[in-house]
Amino acid sequence: MALLDELIHLLGPEHVLTGADAAPWLTDWRGRYVGSATAVVRPANTEAVAEVVKACARHGAPVVPLGGNTGLVGGGTPDNTGTAVVVSLQRMTQIRSLDTDNDTVTVEAGCILQTLQQAARDAKRLFPLSLAAEGSCTIGGNLASNAGGTQVLRYGNMRELTLGLEVVTPEGEIWHGLRGLRKDNTGYDLRDLYIGSEGTLGIITAATLRLYPQPAASCTALVALDSVSEGVTLLSQARLGFGPALTGFELMSGESLALVTRIYPQQTLPLPASPWFALLELSDSEGQEHARERFETVLGAALESGLAKDAVIAESIAQSKALWHLRESIPLAQAEEGKNIKHDVSIPISRIPEFVETTDALLAARFPGIRQVIFGHLGDGNLHYNVAPPLGVDPEVFLQEQDDVYQLVHDSVHAHSGSISAEHGVGQLKRDELPRYKSQVELNLMRKIKDALDPSGMMNPGKVL
């Protein structure tokens, strides 16, 4: 039986998409990568995923797992050979269990992040992963890329939020690892191998995740600053003043927020223009009044010392959401303005001011008129150091400089002891750059793991390695 016929037999014709029906699953979110495939399949449960993988193994067909297709590095897009089978997990959306005594939830990989957040709230719990694509990204994709978001400072990346996994291996076997244990020292940590592996070692079909108590109150503030260095100093003071109650600390250039208000004039900046802004969020276990008092104490000291130029504390949930909406609209505004060159980098926090100053100067000298749209999670050292073309320059023409821009920025990241991928992954976008920045020892170890777990190389080929 031909592979396509076998897939139809397994799943039914309505869940095996080909031709024009498959096209939406074969282009990445940014429109940078377009692939082709034998079919896009939509299994409804883990057992069906396993049968699909077994069929692909028999026919020698590559398998490309796909979540919400919100990735930024081409990790879920097949190549152009047309031999791959794209496995969409969009039908696997169940929340299998929610245990408030153990503070865990077990959820399938196709569940939308926002759906899980709401289920946790309904149970008076918090699932803290929060990012701009939460209305469409899936838990499987979050796991595959080890997603971070805005609250890593307090709660960690997806790896820290995960206790157990269910995975379909390249042989079509099912690893039932959905353990809700904080301690399990019985051998190699397979969970951590699969998280962040971008579907190159197996298909994550479900996960057991940590939940947290809902805070009694949260408070948000926007602070105007003169420099990145002041942002780092304010972060240190906020950590001392708030401790683990500090759940978010975002850095945004004045240019990035000016772009938002230009593209979306209905959004307004509640402070005068400034070179830099910090967005802070405090989660308090006592109440709104206590949270505000703590904010006023720390920010008052920063204003009095001249560290901060100005500040506004949200007076309501609506105002807090409006401040966060400014931050979350930056990548959307960039997309509206036109194509640009994105960087998702991680740098030791103490070295970020030097990195920004040095890299800005190098880019300005090499590409006169170039614009940096910088924002990101200063609290965990993750910057989205995005580069836009000079005003009046066709973005398509500017993109011809992409390789040179990437190398200049990534060389600077490496020189400042950083990583060229913080939370977006490697995919195909950064795959060929890894040998420039990782040692041969690291690459050899990664290859040995890949060869051991996926000896035929069928799982998401051409990604990461």
TrEMBL record:
Residue ranges of coiled coil: none
SUPFAM superfamilies, sorted: FAD-binding/transporter-associated domain-like (SSF56176), FAD-linked oxidases, C-terminal domain (SSF55103)
MF term (GO), any: catalytic activity
Biological process terms in GO annotation: respiratory electron transport chain
One Pfam assignment: FAD-oxidase_C
Cited InterPro entries: FAD-bd_oxidored_4_C (IPR004113), FAD-bd_PCMH (IPR016166), FAD-bd_PCMH-like_sf (IPR036318), FAD-bd_PCMH_sub1 (IPR016167), FAD-bd_PCMH_sub2 (IPR016169), FAD-linked_Oxase-like_C (IPR016164), FAD-oxidored/transferase_4 (IPR051264), Oxid_FAD_bind_N (IPR006094)
Domain FAD-binding PCMH-type positions: 33-214
Cofactor(s) the protein requires to work: FAD
Keywords recorded for this protein, A-Z: FAD, Flavoprotein
Gene3D superfamilies: 3.30.465.10, 3.30.70.2190, 3.30.70.2740, Uridine Diphospho-n-acetylenolpyruvylglucosamine Reductase, domain 2, Vanillyl-alcohol Oxidase, Chain A, domain 4
Alphabetized PANTHER family for the sequence: BLL6224 PROTEIN (PTHR43716:SF2), D-2-HYDROXYGLUTARATE DEHYDROGENASE, MITOCHONDRIAL (PTHR43716)
Family membership noted in the UniProt record: Belongs to the FAD-binding oxidoreductase/transferase type 4 family.
The protein's name in its UniProt record: FAD-binding oxidoreductase
Naturally occurring in which organism (per UniProt): Pigmentiphaga aceris
Lineage, opening ranks: Bacteria, Pseudomonadati, Pseudomonadota, Betaproteobacteria, Burkholderiales
